[in-house]
Amino acid sequence: MPEDEEARLVRLQALQILASEPEPLFDRLVALAAEACGVPIALLSLVDADRQWFKAKVGLPGVQETPRAHAFCAHAIGSQSLFEVQDATADDRFNRNPLVVGPPDIRFYSGAPLTVGEGSAVGTLCVIDQSPRQMTEAQRRTLTMLAAIASDALDMRRSLVERTLTQARRHAAELAATEARFRALVEQQSEIVSLAKPCGELVYVNEAYARHHGLSVASLVGTNLLDHVPPTERAAVRGQLDQVLNTRQRCSADSSVMTPCGQLRHFSWTHSVQRDDKGALLLHSVGRDIHERVMAEAALREQESFLDRTGRVAGVGGWQFDPASGRITWSAQTRRIHEVPDDYQPQLESAIQFYAPEARAQVERAVIQALADGTPWDLELPLVTATGRRIWVRAVGEAEYQGGAVVRLVGAFQDITERRLLQERLAANERFLRKLTDSLPVRIAYVDAERRYRFLNDAHCRRFGVPREQALGHTLAELRGQPSPEVDAAFDAAFRGRMQRFEFDDMVEGHHRRIEGQLIPDIDDSGAVVGVFKTGMDITERSRMEQALRDLSATLRSVAEAIPACIAVVGADGCYRFVNTSYERWIGMGRDAIVGWPVDVLLGDTDFARAEPDAPERA
Q1: 283 touches 195 (CB < 8 A)
Q2: Which of 104, 166, 468, 580 is the most exposed place for a label (fewest CB within 10 A)?
């Protein structure tokens, strides 16, 4: 057992090669070793904790691994040079070994260590004979050089796998962050949003939709949206939905929504058609409460997750090209990527023809350049498989030299279609979000931890009077040109993790407007506020109506107080809602003590029976 056994096993695992499929490069190396040394058996053996596993072999069919306790290679990995046993039956270390006294009847063994990094080797390139013998010096040098090539190939293979994994993880993280931001932006809005099948079955509702109905998201998904429409309006709503589905044109209409407690709320709806990732039609509906003048953006349907798949290497295949014979060798994984039979034998011309027409010239230039001066390549290109399926692949290649001349090209091949689809889907999501938010009259923005704008819709850009490109990256103070203590204080509170809702006056296209602002903290998994979602809605008309209502109420109260008669207002529940001063004096109590109490309690049964309308009139 080598002294650095633990570190050696770590280096072995880092290669990510154990139990992998055969690859032409390593198969060719063991074949060359057997031929150069004139032996029937050659192995590329990797020594694990309790076994030796064969990445490549000749002359040993049906055997993929043996116990480490029986392995000659377990002795060779501790050596810095060739480990040679000329006659195992005469060697006390091996004369009782099961591999000597039984098949494959080893007599001669010579193994060159495979070293990656520093320390003991991870395995060997070894040759075996069933007769005692002794190698020549030339054979020893050849075996040593082939082992060095194999070690370099293992390092190259490891680097390729690590780069692929790193790139996949980065794209997965970018997609996760973007989807989380989109979801937070949509779910925090007050508009109610749904996605439904043509039959009306809900497949998605946002949190606002669930809150309005007093139910959970899970309990609403799977129900029919018409179940929440009053029976008297269902035929009209069904007709509106059919019109949208048949014409593919957006439709706006008003209808009532029925809550579980039986209350009706009148909503203004915008219906349109979308398609899911399989191309099936979906009805997209956005509802706005007319009474409260609340508008917010619509929701994106949750995107299909690719995180698990992009976190793994999607199968790396190997290949090599012999310019002298024109022969190309593909590994099994490379054939699977091309969707060709296991016995398919490509030629250079046919291999290039698999690439999409627009990519073939680029591949041809890369091959010609590598054959001319050894320039390596690493390309991402479209490819059409044997079944006609269009995919994206990553092709990596480099030249091998012998005597200063290029003798072959070797490389790796990987299907990266899923990653490309992720990129395209991410770009589509960004386009959809911008189009969606730009269509709303609500100001929508996102401010990062440095209080700089990272997203603004058109309505927000119009507030500053500058194009989006000039606003992005600037702070609110830089764009507005004058201080606003009220807004700054709200931002301070939002960056401390508290949602803020406030109103302020603003100048919009030369007119004074009343704006209702909302700041929603963007909190990461650690609890830190990394940004703030910002919305602003014009509530000028609502504010005017509310002020008029307050003025009217004040006038009515003044009139009621001026009348010498006793006046009281009783609600439908039989409780006092208002009394004037004369009524206070008559009953002998202040209005704070009267309002909210039932009439029959304060008047008593006798006076209440005398004052109560008779039964027929109540009916």
Answers
A1: yes
A2: 166
CA-to-CA separations, 396 to 116, 210, 318, 412, 416, in angstroms, rounded = 21, 51, 9, 5, 13
Q: What is the pLDDT of residue 481?
A: 66
Residue with tokens 């590329």: 44
Query: Are the C-beta atoms of 109 and 126 separated by less than 8 Å?
Result: yes
- Averaged pLDDT for residues 241-248: 87
* Mean pLDDT computed over 5-16: 89
Using an 8 Å Cβ cutoff, are 128 and 109 in contact? Answer: yes
pLDDT-derived band at 308, boundaries 50, 70, 90: very low
* Whether the Cβ atoms of residue 579 and residue 595 lie closer than 8 Å to each other: yes
> pLDDT confidence of 270, banded at 50, 70, 90?
confident
Contact 582, 565 (CB under 8 A): yes
Q: CB-based contacts of 402: which residues, under 8 Å, 6+ apart?
A: none
pLDDT at 59 over 70: yes
C-alpha–C-alpha distance, residues 571 and 597, integer Å: 11
CB 480 within 8 A of CB 464: yes
The answer to whether residues 532 and 491 touch, using CB atoms and an 8 Å cutoff, is yes
Looking at the domain covering 5-154, what would its CATH class be?
alpha beta
- The residues with which 316 forms a beta bridge, in sequence order, are 414
Coil, strand, or helix at residue 330?
strand
- What's the CATH number for 441-543? 3.30.450.20
Question: Which is the CATH superfamily of the domain at 315-415?
Answer: PAS domain (3.30.450.20)
